[in-house]
Specification:
Length: about 550
Amino acid sequence: MTPANLAATVLSAARSVFETRGLDTSALPEATTVERPRNPEHGDYASTLALQLGKKAGVAPRELAAALAEELGRQPGVKSVEIAGPGFLNIRLDAAAAGVLARDIVLAGSRYGHTDTLAGERINLEFVSANPTGPVHIGGVRWAAVGDALSRLLRAAGATVGTEYYFNDAGSQIDRFAKSLLASAKGEPAPEDGYGGEYIAEIATAVVAEAPDVLKLGEPEALETFRRVGVDLMFAEIKQSLTEFGVRFDTYFNEKDLHERGELQEALDRLRAQGHIYEADGATWLRTTDFGDDKDRVLRKSDGDWTYFAADCAYYLDKRKRGFERIVIMLGADHHGYIGRMKAMAACFGDDPATNLEILIGQLVNLVRDKQPVRMSKRAGTVVTLEDIVEAIGVDATRYALARFSSDSPIDIDIDEWTRATKDNKVYYVQYCAARTFNVAKQAADLGVTRGEPGDFNPGLLTHEKENELLKALGEFPEVIARSAELREPHHVARYLEDLAGAYHRFYDNCRVTPRTDESVTDTHRARLWLNDATRTVIANGLGLLGVSAPERM
């Protein structure tokens, strides 16, 4: 029995009590939850429903708890219910009701843990979106790991998700990139506001190889060639790096397409029709202060050029026209100022910013070795790149380390810690659990222990304290997925997996799945094999949500 099943049983019992006593059933919530007590001696699960409903029902909470306990005690799978304090319900399940979860998990396989809590939601999730002027730096790598994990979580919670990389291929940064490439090709220093690093020389050489006569052209034509070819080469490298990191986007959206298709003008016209546009000082302004922004924003400058914010408006409108009801954008630590203007922009379009737009801000990441910051990449010249961190600790450790912490907290990634083959290395600890479950199953097969048919499984044999602890941990997985998706916080999955691995290792130390040399195979061994394989299923599913492998051996 999962916590969700038990919660539904508790709510059903409450409805029965209300109906029997003639109480107003409209006071009942649509759903309730149960929790694992901190002290296992207080039972398997606890409910505060009687405390929540007592005042609404006009019944003392402890009296209502007594009625609920009596009704729950009649439910299949409930062993006992005790009342604590002012009306807490401490619930114990019988072994068979708890143990059947192992079979259910194995039979569900990769679908176990998936929920429908976000069913019907259409979410556009934009992350990374680094300018194609250099390799993906460590801040972008954090969003690659967290964003990809979040997309997997949202889908597991039932949402329809479109992942998107916004490709800024227009504007002054691209101009500086092209000038840096041209200078490198000519053997000249980079412009004062340009880009440095070995990668500039590499891209410049590649452009010359593709367009051998480029340096014979006039400067405007040469710059255009370096812009066009150089951006294509740089972005191809970015996509390749992300692909090797396990991150693939449903859509790569080019900013220049917004310009070429006239979507900036369309957005301006839409905002004008909403009554939020005005002209001043020869420029076109959006009155975002009407919706809480600290100042109004220019959409078109007095020289006729569009602003970056105009492209932001057009891009938001494009996403909404494609049918996405909720736009989620992940931005770096230096983008706090964007929140107010973007929320105000959504309101100017007539949307509800609280419903239609979410902006998540990620904090800084430092790569450290010997407790000292690794400050720059040899290739990029100024920043630590995706390739640097993957080379240092590997793809799995990088993805896990970056997804393990709340994205709104700065973090240090210690190379020594994340390459150590000990339990202090959290990804190693969880992956070791995955490998151990596989090895146990292999040893069982070698000794003739098989699960048998599902109908032959006897869950009532899983009575050991550590078996019960492991089953309760396994039962929490669907709730962890639902909560992590709702909060947009994949780190809850990583922390859950570490707790689950601990519960499995304690089970392994106390409960033999395989018989000793002088023992015969029993139904208890078979039941424990179901539990072992259920654990492997959940560990693999959880790691998969983080984009991390579940190895068969370490």
